[in-house]
Amino acid sequence: MQTKFLPFIGVLALIGTLVGCGGGQDAEDNAPAADSSRDTAMSAARDQGRDAGNSDDSMQDAAESASGQMDSAGERAARMAGEASERAQGMVDEAGEQAREMASEAGERAEQMAGEASDRAEQAMAAATSAMGSEGSGQAARGDSGDPCVVNVEVGDSIAYSVDSISVPSSCDSVTINLDHTGTLPKAAMGHNWVLVPAAAVQNIGMAGMSVGLESDYLPDDDRIVAATDLIGGGESTSVTFSLDDLDDGTEYAYVCTFPGHWSAMRGTFSVE
Ligand code: CO
């Protein structure tokens, strides 16, 4: 702080010296004082010079310091840039990893879905094969016409239908069931019929047949019955035709024999495709 004033002091000293030199009169008397003033001024000038030198040094130091600071700032900037670059690279890597993970998960899900679709396809194939199998036996029981809306069902001297399930196209205007008893026993001993009812009512209606007796063909009067053939014995045939409009959507149907004691064994599912 003090060195800042030294140049001014030096300048004042120089002015003092010059004034002293220009004095003229009393110059001889004042010579020692002038010399002294000059020395003082010179000394001050030297000091100033030295201080100036020092100041140069200081400036140099400051410059070096500034340079150092700039270098330091540059290094910091470079370091920050490097760190930023590393962070950016890290983020890019992380994003890439996430993307790969997501792609991997998506791939796994796709694979899982493909697997499930494959399972469903297999189930559909199995169902189709099963349907073809039952349709095959159904076709074997059908008449010569091959009409899918006409289904032939055989019964005999045992408590069984020739088909466990019947499926007809929804396009059928009407459906005809032909029932053929290929056995020899009379209907009082081994009578059979084919009665279409809601699947949930099979047991109830099947058991109700016994209470109405043979004179009523063991067929109960029940509004839930969609269609029913006559009761027949060995060597007889009968048929029933009904409209699919008589079926309720969303209700499962089944056919059953209402001869006493036959309902549990003589039954099958009826469906519309
Ligand atoms: Co029967």
Shape: rod-shaped
User: Which class do the helix and strand fractions yield?
Assistant: alpha/beta
Termini gap: 107 Å
Q: Could you tell me the strand content as a percent range?
A: 5-15%
Structure summary, number of beta strands: 8
User: What topology, given as strand order, has the largest sheet?
Assistant: 2-8-7-4-5
Provide a quick synopsis of the model.
Helices cover 53% and strands 14% of the residues. By secondary structure, the chain is an alpha/beta fold.
Walk me through this protein's architecture.
This protein is of the alpha/beta class. Helix content is 53%, strand content 14%. The chain has 4 helices and 8 strands, in the order ααβββαβαββββ. Strands 2-8-7-4-5 form a 5-stranded mixed β-sheet. The chain has a 3-stranded mixed β-sheet with strand order 1-3-6. Helix 1 runs antiparallel to helix 2. The longest helix has 115 residues. It is rod-shaped. Bound molecules: cobalt (II) ion (CO). Cobalt (II) ion binds next to loops. The site of cobalt (II) ion (CO) has 6 residues, from loops.
Topology, element by element:
Layout: H1 6-21, H2 27-141, E1 150-155, E2 165-168, E3 175-181, H3 187-190, E4 195-198, H4 202-212, E5 227-228, E6 237-242, E7 253-256, E8 267-272
Parallel strand pairs: 1-3, 2-8
Antiparallel strand pairs: 3-6, 4-5, 4-7, 7-8
Helix pairs in contact: 1-2
The site of cobalt (II) ion (CO) has 6 residues, from loops.
